Amino acid sequence: MLATGNVGKLTEMRAILAAHGLELIPQSDFGIAPPVEDGASFGANALIKARHAAAVSGLPAIADDSGLEVDALGGRPGLNSARYAGSGATARANNELLLSELAGVAEEQRGARYRCAMVFVRDAADPGPIIAEGLWEGRIGREPRGKGGFGFDPLFIVGGDHRTAAELPAQEKNRQSHRGQALAALAARMRQCGW
Fold first, then answer.
1. CA separation, residue 177 to residues 12, 18, 173 (Å)
2. Cβ of 114: how many Cβ atoms within 10 Å?
3. Which residues are catalytic?
4. CA 58 to each of CA 51, 90, 154, 194: distance values in angstroms, whole numbers, following the listed order
């Protein structure tokens, strides 16, 4: 069970985990509504989502929580990345708010990173969840570029590159992104545990 209804995340996670022989069923296929994400960290929120999906479905579950941290904004939007411009905000509204808040900020102060925590639970009461994290460094551009990805990808210029995450081919993005790193580490740890 994949504890998300986010189509972009589902597409990325299916592509990455297919190589590890894992089939993901989104919680939306079971009509599972997302829980309240009130954890104090990405890891805590991912664990809340995984336990909820496992409890309702009776299946093992994988969940992630991720977001964008911008240096000039003291790490915001962080845990509130999906709701940066308000509850139910669109990616466009979130991107416009980010550009507005960074207006006039010098290039060298536009550092940012995507952070992801990934959790696997065997069941809702699993006392030893498997947890992995990924970090993707970059900076925030001055205008959106690219048609791929989702969320802040059109503004996130990949560290050591001139392209935004939205300009990368999907396979390349999945290999180097915060989510790709976390999923690869999670899959390796799951194999070590016999999954």
1. 10, 17, 6
2. 24
3. 65
4. 10, 32, 37, 19
CATH of domain 7-192: 3.90.950.10
Q: What is the pLDDT of residue 22?
A: 74
Distance CA 20, CA 127 (A): 24
Calpha distance 149→167 (Å, rounded): 8
Rounded average pLDDT over 12-31: 81
What's the CA gap between 183 and 139, in Å, rounded? 23
Domain extents in the chain: 7-192
What lies within 8 Å, CB to CB, of 86 at 6+ separation is 93
Q: Two tokens at 146?
A: 């690219």
Q: Six-digit token pair at 94?
A: 């979130």
Backbone angles phi, psi at 189, to 5 degrees: -70, -35
Separation CA 151–CA 139 (nearest Å): 15
Cis, bond preceding 77 (omega within 30 deg of 0): yes
Q: Which of 67-71, 143-147, 180-184 has the lowest mean pLDDT?
A: 180-184
| DSSP codes joined into one string, 41-72 | SHHHHHHHHHHHHHHHHSS-EEEEEEEEEEGG
- Hey, which bits of the chain come out as E strands? 61-70, 111-121, 130-140, 156-158
Quote the pTM value. 0.90
